[in-house]
Amino acid sequence: MQELSGLTSDGTQLFAVNDSDNGTLRIQVMGRDCVIKRTITAPVDPFDVEDLAMTPDGTLWACDTGDNNKSRSTVALHKVSPTGAVERYRLTYPDGHHDAEALLLDKSGIPYIVTKEPLGSALVYRPTAPLQTDISVPLEQVARVSLSTTDTPGGPLEGTLDSRLVTGAASTADGSVIALRTYTDAYLYPVRDGDIVKALAGDPVRVPLANEPQGEAIAFDPDGTLLSASEGVNTPIRAVPGAAALAQPPAPTTTTPPPPAADQPQAAPPSSSSSWQNWPLALTLGGVVLIAALVIGLRLRLRRRA
Question: Is the pTM of this model over 0.85?
Answer without folding.
Answer: no
